[in-house]
Design goal:
The protein is mostly beta strands. The chain has 8 helices and 44 strands. Strands 31, 34, 35, 36, 38, 39 and 42 form a 7-stranded mixed sheet that branches. A 6-stranded mixed sheet has the order 9-8-3-2-12-13. α5 packs across α6.
Length: about 800
């Protein structure tokens, strides 16, 4: 099992040397008529290279086998220094008359084509452009560093200097070696003891003792047959998520090329045109070519040889079955493609994935008739088709869009798909991407439609899981989703909103400020109080100790005025540098904006980054020990996380306590589509602790004044049905307002095609009459200033039952 490997092949440098008659200066032994160094290539694995390793190829021009037992190939830099040493690669076996012997060397990081199986392997990282290679009788390192001194060493059977090598045979070294060119002798293997004359530059052509070549042109080469082998794609895919042939080499796997990916994780998909009768075994598989774009085309009939590998994009995801280090034979072109499997409301099961009690589902036999993820896995790498699908997640910056093949599955009022339970997953969601880089990707909002048919290959990725890599993309039908505008609060209503402004800092472009400001002034109709999340310090991610946000807030409030809103004032407590999590250097924090023409902020000294705020009981009710203040800021619940900001306001003479929150994110949770089922929500533990601390503080306020008006709001990073919300509302001290909306409106965020609620407003029992609204202006749109929708509550502070 190969977990989270980089998407570039790790390559070993290989050196090719031919056993050449020694063509050295006159002082060298006579030119060899038997063993010679026939080819040297030091560019393997380099940028632009095709081969993954350097090599040295030896050849035998004689009529009898040449015994290499106890011999070595040795390498010296082209311009050796005083500290340069010859590097030794020991040899065994022999070279047949007229045959070749291949020595592979150290690994590079480029190329896509493996050497044929080497006859010996060293660890030398050779230069692509200049060096000296010697065939030596013995394994003791040479000590010579000049041509004359090496000519005097009788252990040297043959020597090749290339590029600008100081140590070489004859008048000059062989020239022209590069990342894409070797230096090699002609077919006669002539050796005149003059490297410049005997070897010429050209494309590398390594051959081993079995006569095999890279790309498979040699006799008896099992890597590139012209007839199919015994293994088929469905044998590779098997009946579980992990191939029964994982880690094994396969030869001559037949298939039709159904899709080619030339960017990112390059490669192509093949599909067997003659499937088996087992619905669990996919007939498609991805052939990974690494950093080099594939040289095949859709419709090619091919035979693929290589190694089967299960690639895990991360440790918690499912894997992608691949053939790696491929060698490909194209048999014909322009072939018809296998018919796609249609995915729709009738073919996709309602159950999501089998349970493994929190363990891995990798070894479970697939049940595609029962579970949606099992169906998608049984089609991994195969052609699929969808039609007239509703968009449930807007087009992203990465040219991907979420759709559902189940139009009646938990629809929201505005066209999304509601996520309402850990146990009731939306099985019809699938991410669509395009393999056609020549056409612009459609810019879609939630509720639009991808009309007509979209056909492509089923793939899997760490973000979003199963996805359709489209070769034929449907057309976009725009349903003209509109951004919402909430009503203006009445004079007697206190309007309080929450808005996550996504890492806003003074270095951001004015367009971001303007769009966010319009959201406050126009779409939220200028609330009296706005609790902001993700305000950064004035220089954002620059990590220089800055913690103030004055410049950021001035730009933002000025932009609100320009958008037609009031001149807001603000309050916040700057964090201790680097202690509140978020983007490194950003010093993220919660902030209150308030309209001083409508509401008063009660400033009370004593609040700072580390001092906890407390409830103070008075004859007139409860007050805060400090305003603004922070809830238990040194408690480990808030370690490396945003601390809640508490403020005391007065509206129409009545006190209102507002708590702005931004709980720890869901980072680190196992994905819904991953191999561990049910997925662990490891981040939840900390949010439950944070919710408990907020609940404890609200309880203390209500203990001092049971009629206290408390509004708790912000980005809680959790759902209405979560343990976090249970902890926050324990004892019925707070009421979550999201549950007062119709079910199809209970969302403020869209993630992987699921409309869900991470942002919340909750009120204490002292808030009797309210009007609550989620204002959809961001999450459903491809063009968004934040990934969160703001929320607002309008409270009649004088109302009593």
């Amino acid at each position: 099992m190969h977990i989270s490997r980089p998407r570039s092949i790790l390559l070993a440098g290989a050196v090719a040397v031919t056993l050449s008659a020694t063509a050295l200066p006159a002082a060298f032994a006579a030119p060899s008529s038997t063993a010679v160094i026939s080819e040297v290539y030091g560019g393997g694995g380099n940028s632009g290279a095709t081969l993954t390793r350097d090599f040295v190829e030896l050849a035998n021009a004689g009529s009898a086998a040449y015994d290499l037992s106890g011999f070595s190939v040795q390498y010296l830099p082209g311009t050796p220094s005083a500290g340069s040493l010859w590097q030794v690669s020991a040899l065994t076996g022999s070279v047949a008359p007229g045959g070749r012997y291949l020595v592979a060397q150290a690994a590079g990081t480029g190329g896509t084509v493996a050497l044929p199986t080497p006859d010996a392997t060293g660890t030398v990282a050779m230069s692509a452009t200049s060096g000296t290679v010697a065939l030596v009788s013995g394994t003791t390192p040479l000590t010579c560093k000049t041509a004359a001194d090496c000519a005097a060493d009788t252990r040297i059977v043959d020597l090749v200097g290339y590029g600008s090598a100081v140590v070489r045979e004859g008048s000059g070294p062989a020239v022209g070696a590069s990342a894409t060119a070797s230096v090699a002798r002609g077919t006669s293997l002539a050796d005149t003891d003059n490297n410049a004359a005997d070897l010429a530059a050209g494309a590398p052509t390594p051959v081993n003792a079995a006569g095999e070549t890279s790309g498979g042109a040699g006799p008896g080469d099992p890597g590139n047959p012209t007839e199919p082998g015994t293994v088929r794609v469905h044998d590779i895919q098997g009946t579980t998520r992990v191939s029964p042939l994982n880690g094994q080499s396969v030869t001559g796997v037949p298939g039709i090329v159904t899709g080619v990916r030339t960017t990112g994780s390059r490669g192509f998909w093949i599909q067997d045109a003659t499937p088996d009768a087992d619905a669990r075994t996919s007939e498609g598989v991805f052939v990974y070519t690494g950093s080099t774009a594939p040289s095949v085309a859709v419709g090619d009939s091919v035979l693929v040889s290589g190694k089967v590998d299960e690639y895990y994009p991360s440790t918690t995801t499912q894997s992608i079955t691949e053939i790696t280090a491929p060698r490909v034979t194209v048999l014909s072109s322009g072939n018809a493609l296998p018919a796609p499997v249609v995915l729709d409301a009738t073919s996709v099961p309602d159950a999501y994935v089998p349970s493994a009690g929190g363990g891995s589902v990798d070894a479970l036999a697939l049940d595609p008739a029962t579970y949606a993820l099992d169906l998608y896995e049984s089609l991994e790498g195969a052609r699929v088709q969808i039609a007239d699908t509703r968009v449930t997640g807007a087009t992203t910056a990465y040219d991907e869009v979420w759709v559902t093949v189940k139009p009646n599955e938990n629809p929201t009022r505005r066209g999304g798909t509601l996520y309402s339970s850990y146990t009731d997953q939306n099985t019809g969601r699938i991410k669509v991407m395009s393999l056609d880089t020549t056409r612009p990707f459609p810019v879609a909002n939630v509720g639009d439609e991808l009309s007509g048919t979209t056909t492509g290959v089923m793939d899997y990725a760490s973000f979003g899981g199963y996805n359709l890599q489209a070769t034929e993309l449907g057309t976009l039908t725009d349903h003209h989703l509109q951004r919402e505008v909430t009503r203006k609060q009445r004079d007697k209503e206190l309007a309080v909103a929450t808005y996550n402004v996504e890492n806003l800092d003074a270095l951001d472009e004015q367009a971001k400020f303007d769009t966010l400001a319009a959201g406050v002034a126009v779409n939220l109709s200028s609330p009296d109080i706005v609790s902001l999340e993700e305000i950064q310090d004035d220089n954002g991610a620059v990590n220089d100790g800055t913690v103030g946000s004055e410049a950021t807030l001035k730009r933002f409030t000025d932009a609100i005025v320009a958008a037609g809103g009031p001149q807001y004032a603000w309050r916040y407590i700057a964090p201790v540098d680097g202690k509140d999590g978020g983007e490194p250097g950003g010093n993220i924090r919660n902030v209150f904006l308030f309209n001083p023409e409508r509401v008063d902020f009660v400033d009370r000294a004593g609040g700072d980054a580390t001092t906890p705020v407390t409830a103070v009981k008075t004859k007139k009710g409860v007050t805060l020990s400090a305003s603004p203040g922070r809830i238990a800021p040194t408690n480990d619940a808030w370690a490396d996380s945003r601390k809640p900001l508490v403020g005391e306001f007065r509206f129409h003479g009545k006190p209102v306590f507002v708590i702005g929150n931004h709980f720890t994110s869901k980072g680190g949770d196992q994905p819904l589509h991953g191999r561990y089922q049910e997925p662990k929500r490891s981040s939840e533990t900390k949010r439950v602790k944070q919710a408990t601390e907020v609940n404890t503080f609200v309880t203390s306020l209500l203990a001092a004044d049971k009629s206290a008006r408390v509004i708790t709001l912000g980005d809680l990073n959790d759902f209405a049905f979560s343990p976090t919300m249970d902890a926050l509302t324990d004892g019925q001290v707070l009421k979550p307002l999201i549950t007062t909306l119709p079910e199809d409106e209970q969302y403020s965020y869209v993630y992987e095609g699921n409309s869900q609620t991470l942002d919340h407003i909750l009120t204490s029992p002292g808030v009797y009459r309210f009007d609550y609204d989620v204002v959809h202006i961001n999450a459903e749109f491809a063009d968004q200033a934040s990934d969160h929708d703001p929320q607002i509550v309008r409270v009649d502070v004088n109302a009593r039952d």
